Amino acid sequence: MALPDYKDQIQITREQALKYYGRSGYHGKSIIDILTKNSTTMKYKKYIGTKIIEAMACEADQAASILNRKVDSDSPQAPGYLVVYEDGYRSWSPEEAFANAYREAEGLPFGLALEALKKGKAVRLPQWKEDVKIRAQFPDEHSKMTAPYLYVESRFGLVPWKETMIELFSEEWQIVE
User: Fold this and answer.
1) What is the pLDDT of residues 8-62, one digit of tens each?
2) In 1-114, at which residue ranges do the beta strands (DSSP E only) sit?
3) Contacts of residue 37, Cβ cutoff 8 Å, sequence gap at least 6
């Protein structure tokens, strides 16, 4: 049995794996092991990503019309999201895949807010005055600092940020720029 060509994702049923790999050899093997049975050069690593996007709920057929191209979907009325990436690229994502990859940019834990800071965005907590934001500074060849740091930007100027545990453990962080 020849396995289908999976370009963007690996999907294989247990039955396909058993037919391809054989019943005696399947036990204890991962799908990655099965798909790479005859390949010694393929090595998979785990990845985690953080993207800042804009999206709106959109059924597959609506997305296909807006994008002016076919979208991969089981049904024209399949729920999903029309996604616009920072570089302007647009695509459609099925609802479940979208929910597994993204969450709204308000009500974030500090770890995700820190990822946004690393990408040049500003973050804030909702109880702060509107002009108060946290930003990241990354040293360059002209900097006196040798490591990145976070600072507060407000109507009073710029000062280093001295975080509190309450702030770090808050799940209310917002990306503001």
Assistant:
1) 445 555 566 556 555 545 455 565 565 665 555 667 888 777 788 999 999 999 9
2) 54-57, 80-84, 90-94, 106-108
3) 20, 21
Six-digit token pair at 98? 């979208």
Give the separation between CA 50 and CA 48, rounded to whole angstroms. Answer: 7
Domain ranges of the chain: 9-47, 54-101, 106-175
Q: Rounded to a whole number, what is the distance in angstroms from the first to the last CA of the chain?
A: 52
Residue 137 forms beta bridges with which residues?
149
Burial of 172 (0-12, 13-18, 19+ CB in 10 A): middle
Structure tokens at 173: 């962080």
In tens, the pLDDT along 110-156 reads: 999 999 999 999 999 999 999 999 999 999 888 888 999 999 999 99
Look-up of token digits 């647009």: 90
Beta-strand runs (E) in the chain: 54-57, 80-84, 90-94, 106-108, 123-124, 133-137, 149-154, 157-160, 173-175
